[in-house]
Write a structure and sequence with these properties.
The chain is of the alpha/beta class. The protein has a single domain, classed as Rossmann fold (3-Layer(aba) Sandwich), CATH 3.40.50. Helices cover about 35% and strands about 35% of the residues. Strands 2, 3, 4, 5, 6, 7 and 8 form a 7-stranded mixed β-sheet that branches. A two-stranded antiparallel sheet has the order 1-9. Helix 2 (about 50-65) packs across helix 6.
């Protein structure tokens, strides 16, 4: 039953999202001119192995939605940091960030210079869980389960030259569907759906095919 589900196209499915954003001067022109580099995402305990996958999916969605924005992927950012001898400074900056929520301005500026991008995006996986709940059964046997996944993300874009936050957004998504199989909602799929919502709200020229209003129609949730 529905191994691949369009968000709006499968009976017995549901999706709820909630998001808030704040813009502190970021514009379409600045993003295209100055570029955007991905920093290492932050995650809740137990999800550390998902950091690379999180950044990869966001990078792919950014390319698709906003092809005019030049961006530096996480592997490229890490390579630039390492080649410029900034590894220890980068680690120190993240240790301070965990305690203060602030990226040290002088280190952030050097990272911007190393990557050639004025802006840096930091993703935070604040919550994620997936599972199944029994819905219908006969004589003690479960026939239909509700497969579900929930995710909470927080995204900040920093101006590396000034050390200030210029755009941020919090986002929550709950998705589920009824299934007779035990195949769950994949981590990648719910991240991709969330990335479409989040990056679709950037102050940037939209792709001629996928506008903010149209992202839900083309986003798919897949089962494992």
């Amino acid at each position: 039953m529905c191994a691949t589900l369009a968000i709006s196209g499968c009976a017995g499915s549901f999706m709820h999202t909630n998001s808030q954003q704040h813009n502190n001067g970021l514009t379409d022109e600045l993003l295209q001119k100055e570029g955007l580099a991905f920093l290492t995402p932050s995650t809740i305990t137990g999800q550390e192995e998902d950091k690379q996958a999180l950044a990869l999916v966001f990078s792919e969605v950014l390319t698709r939605l906003h092809p005019k924005i030049r961006h530096v992927s996480l592997p490229q950012t890490l390579s630039a940091i390492n080649s410029q001898g900034l590894t220890n400074d980068y680690r120190t900056m993240y240790e301070q960030y965990r305690n203060t929520g602030i990226f040290k301005q002088d280190i952030l500026k050097r990272i911007g210079q190393a990557t050639g991008a004025r802006y840096a995006v930091q993703l935070k996986l604040a919550g994620f869980n997936q599972g199944a709940e029994g819905r219908f059964g006969v004589f003690g046997w479960r026939i239909v389960d509700t497969q579900y996944a929930k995710i909470r993300l927080f995204v900040q874009i920093w101006d590396t030259s000034a050390g200030v936050i210029v755009w941020e957004m919090s986002h929550e998504m709950n998705y589920g569907y009824d299934s007779v199989s035990d195949r769950g909602v994949s981590f990648r799929s719910i991240v991709e759906a969330s990335a479409n919502d989040i990056l679709g709200n950037l102050p940037a020229e939209k792709h001629p095919i996928e506008s903010v209003a149209g992202t839900h129609a083309v986003t798919q949730i897949k089962t494992d």
